[in-house]
Amino acid sequence: MGRVVQVNDGDFDTEVIGSTIPVLVDFYADWCGPCKIVAPTMETLSKEYAGKVKFVKVNVDNNPEVASKYDIMSIPTAMLFEKGTVKDSVVGAVTAAAYRQRIDHALSA
Predict the structure, then answer these.
(1) Contact in structure between 107 and 52 (CB atoms under 8 Å)
(2) Which residue out of 4, 25, 35, 56 is catalytically annotated?
(3) CATH T-level assignment (fold) for domain 4-108
(4) Fewer CB atoms < 10 Å away: N or C end of the chain?
């Protein structure tokens, strides 16, 4: 069924670092135009990869601790975590195909 879950500084470790499946984290802000373009793509991908990859989003304005910990300087930034480690990241709005390629590569590694 898939969906993108909002996480924050308080539950990031539980939802992302402690996840038993890979997690794609979308770092965004409400005022960010490119972030709004990426949001529907993340929703679509969350359905395509349901059960294989968890999709979450973190508002960098409301969650400065996590944003700082992962050196988020530009948004949108997407980071793929596996077993608590960043496996890949992409900065900026990219196509669904570009996200799929990165996710598939990480899952096959």
Answers:
(1) yes
(2) 35
(3) Glutaredoxin (3.40.30)
(4) N
Q: Which of 7, 24, 25, 32 is catalytic?
A: 32
Active site residue 105: no
DSSP character at residue 15? I
Q: Is 88 a catalytic residue?
A: no
25 beta partners:
56, 79
Beta strands 85-91 and 23-28: pairing type?
unpaired
Band (19; pLDDT cuts 50, 70, 90): very high
**Among 98, 91, 99, 103, residue whose Cα is nearest residue 34:** 91
Angle at 45 between CA 42 and CA 47, to 5 degrees: 115
Give strand pairing partners of 23.
54, 81
pLDDT digit string, tens, across residues 21-80? 999 999 999 999 999 999 999 999 999 999 999 999 999 999 999 999 999 999 999 999
Environment class of 78 (CB within 10 Å of its CB; exposed 0-12, middle 13-18, buried 19+): buried
Q: Where are the domains of the chain?
A: 4-108
